Amino acid sequence: MFLERRLIPAIEGWIVLVTGVHEEASEEDILDFFSEFGEIQQTHLNLDRRTGYVKGYALLEYATLEEAKAAIAGAQGKKILDQPIHADFAFIRGPKADRPERGNRFGGGRGGNRRTRSQSPVAKEGQRGSLEARIED
What region does 51 belong to: left with phi over 0, alpha with psi -120 to 50, or beta? Predict the structure, then answer.
């Protein structure tokens, strides 16, 4: 399950994204369920400003990759407050074929110097003759 994609750690650990969290779930509900898989370094439960309820997801940080994998596997098919949840890694880098080619702002990369915008009038004048010569006519 984890071999086909490259996992990216956070600065201090591994972030697990839990979706399907019930709007009335508390941080304690989440911690009680997920603490059995390892020590949770940090928890973030985003609340809606207008209603004050949970937005439906939680972010959990585990210190080791093994703890994070155990939490993801342990959450599959489980419910918190009678609502099914889903867990996965928050940061995943897909295969190289799916990522766009990177280059610098001057059109670098492997594509050469491709111009995507029209040339400025000053650059066009340089190709056709000087601006002073056209004004004198």
Answer: alpha
